[in-house]
Amino acid sequence: MLETKNPEIDIADLLEKVGAELKHQQTKSTGTQKNTPQDELQINDPYAWNQLRETLKMAELNVDAGAEVTSMLHYRGIVRKIARLLGKVTVFLGRVITIPQRNFNASILHSQRIILDGLRDMNRNTAQLEREMERIKEKSALIDYLKTSVITQERRVSILLEELRRQVDGGESSNTSKPELRGPGILDPLYLAFENQFRGTREEIRQRLLEYVPLVRESGAGVEGRELLDIGCGRGEWLEIMHDEGLLAKGLDLNHVLVQDCLDRGFIVEENDALSYLRSLPDNSLGAITSFHLIEHLSFDDRVALFDESVRVLKSGGIALFETPNPRNLLVGGCNFWADPTHLRPLYPETHQFLMEYRGFCRVELLYLHPHEGEQRLPEEEAPQLAARLNEVLSCARDYTIVGYKA
Amino acid sequence: MKPVGVVIPWFGRDLKGGAEQLAWQVSNRLAGRGHGVEVLTTCCASFLEDWSTNHLPAGVETLDGLVVRRFKVDKRNGELFNQANTHALSVPAESLRPGSNPFTFGTGDLFVAENINSQALERYLKRHKKKYHAFIFLPYLYGVILNGLPLVADKAWLQPCLHDEVYAYLPAVEHIMRSCRGLLYNSLGEERLALNLFGPGIGRKGHVVGVGVESLDLDPGALPAKVADIELENTKYVLCLGRRDPTKNTAMLVTAYQKYRAAHPKTKMELILAGPGEERFGLSVPGVHDLGLVSETDKEALLARCRALFQPSRNESYSRVIMEAWFCNRPVAAHGACLATAMAVGAAGGGWLAESLDDWAGLFHRLEQADDLQLLELGKKGREYARRYAEWDAVIDRYEDVLGLKAAEKTGRGATRPTALRTIHQLTPGFAYGDAISNQAIMIRGLLRDMGYRSEIFTEHLDPLMTHEARLFKDGKGIKENAGLIYHHSIGSGLTDFVINHPGPKSLIYHNVTPPDLVRDADPELARILEQGLHDLGRLAPHFSVSAGDSQFNSRDLEENGFSNPFVLPIFVAPEKWNIQADPNMMMRLHDGRDNILFVGRLVANKCQHDLIEAFAAYHSMYGNCRLILVGGFIEEESYYQRLAELVRQHGLEGDVLFAGKVPDSTLHACYRCAHLYWSMSEHEGFGVPLIEAMWFDVPVLAYKSSAVPETMDEGGLLFTDKQDFGQLAAAARLLIHDPEVKDKIISGQHRRRNDFLPEAIGPQLEALVRGMNG
Fold first, then answer.
1. What is the DSSP letter of A46?
2. Shortest Cα–Cα distance, B203 to chain A (Å)
3. Which residue ranges make up each domain of chain A?
4. For burial by CB atoms within 10 Å, which of A36, A109, A304, B40 has the most?
5. Size of interface A-B (CB pairs under 8 A)
6. CB contact, 8 Å: B621 with chain A?
7. Which member of A30, A54, A61 has the closest CB to residue B664?
8. Chain segment B360-396, per-residue pLDDT in tens
9. With 60 as the cut, is the pLDDT of residue A174 above it?
10. What does the alpha-carbon distance between residue B24 and residue B14 come to, in Å, rounded to a whole number?
């Protein structure tokens, strides 16, 4: 099937070589090597880039316009001589205009070339930076993974120590476990009434919560095997959104009346306290954990335990999202926060960002939400600086959210 | 005859340095043969002095009967120059890539502007260019040369004395290499290096003239028996001659000798070093003698009695001492990675090549074992080579030839017009940048003008980028009734009626009409125009008594359509088209170690890019580390492109197949330069220009035997007759890329074939066509 007229090549020999090459290749492992890095050329990119270069070249050809007489090849003999003479005279007289024009051409071209070179160098540097960035990303993912595994080991050690202490103490401490989070059931209807009065209407809350949907979707949670758990689901606004979005979610609340209400609406809800429910779950079993206006009800120890358990039960890449009132807003911190008698204390944002990172979450971020708008803001016309300053502390975000991921 | 100007930054009888010595010798010897020679140089005394000081007076002086014009040097900022130079020298040698500028951030401009320059010399060149027959500029990397040569480019021969070093990658150097009229090389290796760096565009204007050496026909009796207390007659030694600096690799040779001596402690073989330089070796190494600078007589004595000369430097464009050793019948060892010396040793067969430390150590042992007769045999082979390339008489003969200094033969224009016609115009439906037919028309116009005709190109559709090359056709304006007319036919056009009715002498060149069915799905409008083109061919036949196809394949088509006795006028494919800068970005991207497989042609079903992707997938799965580059216009929405893109996805080759689109010549230049294989699966080629272009870039061609392909390829490249077994094709492709023996044979076949499409080869056929027009 191979042919050539080249007398130096013996086709039979060549075919034999091809056969040998094929055989040699077949005996080797058939795994294909993938090229790295990927060819990053865009389809039409080099064309535009080179158009620039080509047009510049065209400009270069003409940079000396008016300096010399053209060769006038289409004339011959005496006609050509006369044409060239006339041309020379014209060129000579035209120098008044053409000399500054040529200088202008040359300087513009020169600067264009410098710009083009600079652009190319910058392109090269950008490509290098991008590669560096990829490397850093990979490294940072590794660090996150290591961090999680260190935390898991720490927890195992502390459980073992606890176990050991219990055995040494002979089980004495079993009765001294912390009181349950759960409030007395008798106050449940009261809290529902309170929520309706102070928390805001169902529709308002829904509107605010909608902002979180993209975050949940991006993390890949809410699907089979990566369900979402909403702790302190309350009246179920968030569960409703999840339901509307077609995402799988389960709610948890201590308030018997609220739980019943949610069950009536057709949501999956359990009446249980957060920590004991989480402790009952196996490792790596959830896609997302959310809780809105819950952690300010918990003691410090319970908050830390909540973070720990969340890291444990989330799957890799899973998201945890905790919303709480923002004490940086003085109205909230100094007054509104205390409207709820069951709140323990305002939570300082950076402390909790640190805490989540320290307990094993990665990419932990603070989102500031729901600022006061419109007439609630001080008008800035009269004393703009003062108004701006006051707006900054009085009308800024009323809530903030800590978002973290499991590596 | 007018004098030859020799332009060099420094000039004097006693100046050291290869280029300075060469300039002295060539100027004097050309003058000795009675040619007028003037040296144009600066008032700076030498390379080693301050480049902005005028040590010597400006004006004309006579040195040994030679006219030397000296010009004042410009003030310069040495600090800036040093910064630019340091910046360039910090680029590691392994990261240098042909076509990519290592002088980033504008340092290249600084390097040239703050180099040794002389505006006075530049002014002189501009004003007095006409007084000179030709100029020789040397060497390549100084401001005087870089800025002076472009002023008289059409009379300038550059003798670059090129090295593979960072300066050779400076854009200004590429500019003078491309714009000069001709290139003079000192050695075959230097020529090869230049082709590697700048591609085939500069190939045909280069000439290896060689460098002369005083032939050493020595009388052993007259030579001193002892040099620096060493009894040469009774000592077995290897000689290494030359200046010491880190690039000359002398330290490596000493280490290799120590290694050899450690393995053979009883050896009698010694190593003698001689030459200037501050670094000294061997003061404490047994068996090594470093003599420093020695007299000419001592050098001759050392050469005449050595076992062999070792030249370990990797950085030579030419090595005088190698020729000197050969004139003494002594064999030579050179560094395998130094193109210039390695090619000389390889071509002469006068010695050995070595690269690693172990290679060099092994050579000492081999020399100790070899008997005197073997060594003499090798030395004699070297001597033959030296006589051819390094005897001054032969060298100066070549200068005379190249510069046209021998009694000039008259080649007056206008005298060779083969017919009574005065004007022959060409008419073509479209005229576009990068288009093969348009390029052909330009070539034909050049040849017609050379024959003495007035000639223009007229076209119906003119690409804005090409307005300087052709005129827009407007109802025959500018084409007189009695003018000759060559009509290029390849598609339906509104010109048919005009050419049929043109009363003057005329001929038709047929470039094949793509069968309309092949494009009907993708572009119904184009299919309609092609159909008209086929239909018109029949209408044109009775009106054209003279016609030509650009291949036998196309001529047969003409005959079938009623044309009688059509000629064959192949398309001109000359490498000078590629005397342009290659797109540096593309060069950098494609030089990444992968096997680059190239095909050039519009994305249409009859070019069978789909088969090529399948075959490439086979190659990829067998060998990996490869890339397929498809150059050729396409529209993203077209179904054929969509089909190809889907095929690429199916095979998981997204990162490995590059749809480059329609690209400018500079990018295509880069693709050819970086390609390792040109692979065509096409089932319809009327001629196949890229097949020949690939041959000029020394890219092996593997092509499916169809339409005009076998005729175009002839003994070039490798054909295959069926597409059944992609695995087998992939294995053949692998051999063409990676088996040096197969590749070399294919390339040498391609070297022979590509010459058949040069203007000088096809010119007579065009002349026959013109004669037939019966003017």
1. H
2. 22
3. 46-132, 185-405
4. B40
5. 141
6. yes
7. A54
8. 999 999 988 888 899 999 999 999 999 888 889 999 9
9. no
10. 9
Q: Which residues 260-299 of chain B have a CB within 8 Å of chain A?
A: none
Query: What confidence tens digit (pLDDT) does each residue in B113-159 have?
Result: 999 999 999 999 999 999 999 999 999 999 999 999 999 999 999 99
DSSP character at residue B601: S
The reply to whether residue B625 touches residue A3, judged by beta carbons under 8 angstroms, is: no
CA distances from A270 to A230, A249, A295, A304, A331 (A): 10, 12, 18, 22, 34
Structure tokens belonging to residue B338? 């130094």
Chain A contact for B428 (CB, 8 A cutoff): no
Q: ipTM above 0.90?
A: no
Answer whether B539 touches A (CB < 8 Å).
no
Residue A384: the pLDDT is 80
**3-state SS, residue B630:** strand
Burial of B216 (0-12, 13-18, 19+ CB in 10 A): middle
* pLDDT of A134 over the 60 cut: yes
Question: Which residues in chain A are closer than 8 Å to B705, comparing Cβ atoms?
Answer: 3
Cα B607 to Cα A140: distance, rounded to the nearest angstrom: 48
Residue A107 has pLDDT above 70, yes or no: yes
Nearest-CB residue to A9 (from B105, B658, B745): B745
- Give the amino acid at B83: Q
Give phi and psi for A157, each to the nearest 5: -60, -45
**What is the token pair recorded at A278?**
């989480």
Query: What is the SS3 assignment for B425?
Result: strand
Contact: A43, B659; criterion CB under 8 Å: yes
Dist. CA A34–CA B656, nearest whole Å: 9
Tell me how close the Cα of A317 comes to any Cα of chain B, in angstroms.
27
Give the integer Cα–Cα distance in Å for B635 and A359: 55
What was the pLDDT predicted at B251? Answer: 85
Contact between B312 and B335 under an 8 Å Cβ cutoff? The reply is yes
How far apart are the C-alpha atoms of A349 and A183, rounded to whole Å? 26
Which amino acid appears at position B97 of this protein?
R
pLDDT of A392 above 70: yes
Average confidence (pLDDT) over A335-348: 87
Separation CA B186–CA B311 (nearest Å): 17
- Answer yes or no: do B454 and A74 touch at CB < 8 A: yes
Structure tokens at B770: 């013109």
Chain A partners of B749 at a C-beta cutoff of 8 Å? Answer: 4-6, 8-9
CB < 8 Å from A in window 731-750 of B: 731-732, 734-735, 739, 742, 745-746, 748-749
Q: Do A50 and B583 touch (CB under 8 A)?
A: yes
The CA distance from B66 to the nearest CA of chain A, in Å, is 34
pLDDT at B718 over 90: yes
Q: CATH for A185-405, among 3.40.50.150, 3.40.50.970, 3.40.50.300, 1.10.290.10?
A: 3.40.50.150
> Would you say B239 and B274 are in contact if contact means Cβ atoms under 8 Å apart?
yes
pLDDT at B775 over 60: no
Cα gap B492→B538, rounded to integer Å: 12
Tell me how many degrees the CA angle A56-A59-A65 measures, rounded to the nearest 5: 165
Beta strands in A162-268 (DSSP E): 228-231, 249-253
Look up residue B305 and give its amino acid.
Answer: R
Residue with tokens 């908050």, as numbered in its chain: A303
CA B150 to CA B152: how far, in whole Å? 6
Domains and CATH numbers, chain B: 4-208 (3.40.50.2000), 220-389 (3.40.50.2000), 424-568 (3.40.50.2000), 578-757 (3.40.50.2000)
* CA torsion through residues B618, B620, B622, B623, sign: positive
Q: Do B624 and A33 count as a contact with CB atoms less than 8 A apart?
A: yes
From the CB of residue B138, how many other CB atoms can be counted at a distance below 10 Å? 23
